[in-house]
Specification:
The structure holds 2 protein chains of 2 kinds. Chain A contains 11 helices and 2 strands; from the N terminus they run ααααββααααααα. In chain A, strands 1-2 form a two-stranded antiparallel ribbon. Chain B folds into 2 domains: 233 residues, 3-Layer(aba) Sandwich (Rossmann fold); 151 residues, Response regulator (Rossmann fold). In chain B, α2 packs parallel to α11 and α3 packs parallel to α4. Classes of the chains: A mainly alpha, B alpha/beta.
């Protein structure tokens, strides 16, 4: 029975990582833009969700408001600062500036919410386990899996079936050609960036009943997001999806069989993928 | 928010209070020294005593550092930041979550600021890293948290005193209690790093000696975010109780997920006290109810010193103190008692050590005294249970497990 619950554990953890990694991957794919403040947006989502739950008493409102706040912050950051850093050959500037933003977010959240550990219980009716005979499993991870699948589906539809999606894909494929053909790449990138960080904030809210908010969580999540993006291949939403599931399952089965080496196993997986397919599982081979 | 203090606030506060004390205004809070504290007597003269305080104000242990600063302040204010005829000046540095940075900051306090007394330190890794520095500089060091066994054993130093605990001291008494009173069949889960390993080893030592059987021992990495697999293994082992050690957000997550899995109330928890201390309880609340734990203090511990301590802390900071606050509060008291005993003359390190060895007082935790051999505190350890007391989720003392001295 442990194997069954490890499967669900891995899937739900993987879905969280997908919400986190999808945005980072999209932004990189469309704008070749590296955002190291991504983990910060994840915990901002978490803290906003926490505050909404405490003030308004409704967890689901937090799921709505958290990503909106995250997306708005993303837009503001892009308009004020980040748009000056777009373009090829600016990677170092991007890394420096977004890392600075990450540090500002870390200090701002500490000033606003303190250094205490914050956590919330699972919202009703998902606060009790499902029991089938001898087997029982908490309900909330299944909610996370549902949210992850839903977001993946919607993103896929957005990218494959809408005009905006086509523009995003065009800008990701060849930004110069897209621009020549009349795709407004700067606004498209801004939109993608806002969408990406909104997803990270959504992840932060959804994770609340399973993870605790504390100083340092933002950088842990950033690291995991980078692992997912590198394994999946930069710029592909499907890549982030499968890579997140792979990391999630490696984590849960690793904990079951080799609890001492779980962290090492995730990075071992990363190393293997880099050796075998340096461009990532679904990444495009550079020509 | 009044509960957060930066280093600058602390210095301002210290200076402000010292001035207030001299001018004799606004002193009503500070004018209530704990019984048994020798009063400073004469007005302070000469240069202030420099006390270096190294606690984390950033990183994962931020909340603990804040609790400790509050504890230092609460006690030093009660004596108007004066002892042995000298003013006390606190120089605070950020320990951070990194042992190497902590060592650099400790070196700065000792070599650049030339502090006469050193205190603080949350992390065991950090205290091990700075052990030689403290020892060789012959700085009287009052460690108020870091609990690694070895600081009392292989790496002890005459200049290092500890007002907190060793990991052995807290968890050893619990094993026997569980075997005698709860069950002989447990599963163990613990954070896989120094303190977690030492804690589970100490529990196991007395538990198996009392006839207990460990069905499974499940380590998990520090900073774990998902405990489902740990919980599955616990369930699979079919224990009658779970012993555990996790702290901070690990503890919060485990307790939340243990309750979500429907195991709370079915499998009793008996854990090392830090796993259900105030910092964790204020976050998980009722999901921690009924958990047993062992620790050298409880917020509800019934003695006059503790009642006064908790009351004053709540009045000032509008929340419950934690064990970390209490350890720093006692650390401040040790410093004050030492300075009083030597009349503020800190020139001879060995004289300071002798003065510290003689310190004995009624602490919020009960009788406080140092082991003359190891310089670690000898103290009572209490068996507590998390209960709802008039709407507040707190640890209630179930029984006193007696005085515990680390064997060294």
């Amino acid at each position: 029975m442990q194997y069954v619950s490890a499967l669900f554990n891995g899937l739900s953890y993987g879905m969280l990582l997908f919400l986190l990694g999808a945005g980072l991957s999209l932004v990189f794919g469309v704008g070749r833009f590296i955002n190291l403040a991504h983990g910060g947006l994840f915990i901002i989502g978490g803290y906003v969700g926490f505050t909404v739950l405490n003030e308004l008493g409704n967890f689901w409102l937090g799921i709505l408001i958290g990503p909106m706040v995250g997306g708005a912050l993303g837009l503001a950051a892009d308009l004020l600062v980040l748009r000056r850093l777009h373009g090829h050959g600016r990677e170092l500037d991007q890394v420096l500036v977004t890392f600075g933003l990450a540090l500002i977010i870390a200090d701002a959240t500490r000033a606003g919410w303190g250094g205490d550990i914050r956590s919330v219980g699972a919202p009703a009716p998902f606060d009790r386990p499902i029991e089938i005979g001898d087997f029982s499993y908490p309900t909330y991870p299944l909610v996370i899996i549902g949210v992850g699948l839903l977001v993946f589906g919607l993103l896929w539809l957005l990218l494959q079936r809408t005009r905006v999606g086509a523009m995003i894909r065009a800008a990701a494929g060849d930004p110069q050609m897209a621009q020549v053909l009349g795709v407004p790449t700067a606004p498209v990138l801004r939109l993608t960036f806002a969408l990406g960080v909104a997803l990270a904030a959504l992840g932060g809210v959804v994770a609340l009943p399973r993870q605790a908010l504390a100083p340092g969580r933002d950088f842990e999540m950033l690291l995991l997001a980078l692992v997912v993006v590198v394994i999946g291949g930069l710029g592909r939403i499907e890549g982030a999806f499968w890579a997140a599931l792979l990391v999630g399952l490696t984590d849960s089965y690793g904990k079951l069989f080799f609890p001492e080496f779980t962290v090492a196993m995730i990075f071992g997986l990363l190393a293997l993928v880099l050796i075998w397919r340096p461009e990532g599982l679904l990444g495009r081979r550079a020509v | 928010m009044s509960r957060r203090l930066s280093r600058r606030d602390l210095l301002k506060l210290g200076a402000g209070l010292a001035v207030a004390g001299v001018l004799g205004c606004e002193g009503e809070e500070a004018a209530t020294p704990t019984p048994g504290t020798p009063s400073a007597g004469q007005a302070p003269s000469g240069p202030p005593v420099k006390v270096g305080v190294l606690v984390p104000t950033s990183g994962v242990y931020t909340a603990l550092g804040r609790d400790m600063l509050n504890g230092y302040n609460l006690y030093f204010q009660q004596v108007n930041f004066t002892a042995g005829g000298r003013r006390i000046e606190l120089i605070t540095e950020d320990e951070t979550g990194d042992a190497n940075t902590a060592l650099t900051r400790a070196r700065k306090l000792i070599e650049a600021d030339r502090v006469e007394v050193f205190t603080g330190v949350v992390s065991t890794a950090a205290v091990y890293a700075m052990r030689d520095l403290l020892h060789q500089s012959r700085t009287l060091s009052i460690i108020t948290n870091a609990g690694g066994n070895d600081l009392t054993r292989g790496r002890k130093s005459p200049y290092i005193f500890r007002t907190s605990f060793t990991s052995w001291q807290v968890s050893f008494p619990l094993g026997k209690w569980v075997a005698d009173n709860l069950t002989k069949r447990v599963a163990i889960m613990y954070a896989d790093y120094g303190f977690g390993q030492e804690s589970q080893a100490a529990f196991r030592e007395s538990f198996t000696a009392a006839g207990g059987q460990v069905l499974d021992a499940i380590p998990f990495p520090l900073g774990n975010s998902d405990f489902s697999s740990v919980i599955d293994r616990i369930r699979a082992a079919r224990p009658d109780a779970v012993y555990g050690f996790a702290s901070g957000s690990d503890a919060v997550l485990f307790l939340r997920q243990f309750a979500q899995a429907g195991l709370r109330g079915r499998i009793p928890l008996a854990v090392t006290g830090f796993m259900v201390e105030q910092d964790v309880l204020q976050s998980v609340g009722r999901d921690a109810l009924d958990a047993y734990s062992s620790l050298h203090w409880a917020v509800t511990l019934d003695n006059p010193t503790n009642r006064r301590f908790v009351e004053e802390y709540r009045r000032r900071y509008n929340e419950f103190p934690s064990v970390f606050t209490m350890q720093a509060y006692d650390g401040a008291r040790v410093i004050v008692e030492v300075l009083n005993a030597v009349n503020g003359d800190t020139s001879d390190p060995d004289r300071l050590v002798r003065a510290a060895e003689a310190v004995r007082f009624d602490s919020p935790r009960g009788l406080f005294e140092f082991d003359p051999v190891t310089h670690n505190v000898i103290q009572n350890v209490y068996l507590r249970q998390v209960r709802d007391q008039g709407g507040q989720v707190v640890n209630v003392v179930v029984t006193d497990l007696g005085r515990v001295r680390d064997p060294g």
